[in-house]
Amino acid sequence: MIGALPTAASLYERVRRVIPPIEWPAFADDIDAILALKRERNAVILAHNYQTPEIFHCVADIVGDSLALARKAMTVDAEIIVLAGVHFMAETAKLLNPDKTVLIPDLEAGCSLADSITAEDVRLMRQRYPSVPVVTYVNTSAAVKAESDICCTSGNALAVVKSLGAPRVIMLPDEYLAKNIAAQTKVEIIAWKGHCEVHERFTAADIRELREAHPGISVLAHPECPPAVVAEADFAGSTAAMSDYVARHRPERVVLMTECSMSDNVAVEHPDVDFVRPCNLCPHMKRITLTNIRTALEETRHVVTIDPLVAERARWAVERMLFV
Known about the structure:
Elements: H1 8-15, H2 25-41, E1 43-48, H3 53-56, E2 62-64, H4 66-73, E3 80-84, H5 87-96, E4 101-103, H6 112-115, H7 119-128, E5 134-137, H8 142-145, E6 150-152, H9 157-163, E7 168-172, H10 175-182, E8 188-191, H11 204-213, E9 218-221, H12 227-232, E10 235-236, H13 239-249, E11 253-257, H14 260-269, E12 274-276, H15 290-299, H16 308-322
């Protein structure tokens, strides 16, 4: 017997600490419609940690960082996948689910890292550094992944680099991630000049000011931040690793040097922790809304397609990553 659907009214208690009551009516109709549409269309919603709480906690079926979403996408038992995130994530879900319909609610939900490099750039790097393996961050297009030996995420980048057993590795496109990984290994890392427009704005001075204003605060930084920021932080890791850190250590007060909504989503699970929020917002993630998720499900809007020849090569690089 199919159980009763949750409702927007029943879900509000989950997010009441981060969404004021006055705002909730603006979300309720879309939430109820999406919950019904998921069942009618045999659909699931995958949501990245940077999605807003009304998406992350109220309509998503699978949540996490890029690595978690990539792994869990392979186990999805549904005909339709809606990716509440940016375009490269939707492409990755399609690579891992070639026979399913993958939708992205807004085609303009891009990424500064993905935009910083092309497949031709990777081919030129290979010419300049022959025989050096290419590790490509998942924050790239399928065409770039297809030119790579293996992909990585911020959560497994070090393990991926070590798995290659090579003295030199090309790591693309995030310069800061590459430098932060290089600091943890003797492998020579050849980097690209791509940057995340959210994380590149954080500075070491920001952290010092936070410590002065909030004595005893725990500072957690994403490895897409500049190395000086990572050096000043108490811990650096992927969004999943930051969430796990809060769960394990339960700091009295914490700041997450990453995208705005991450703090809101972790705060829902840890009401005893005081989150200080220096908010750098990702304009691309914020293009995803309840309204366009609903429209995507109603109209099967924005189907993700990848050239089969590109998909075959890109899939190999992603799948190789998942077995590291």
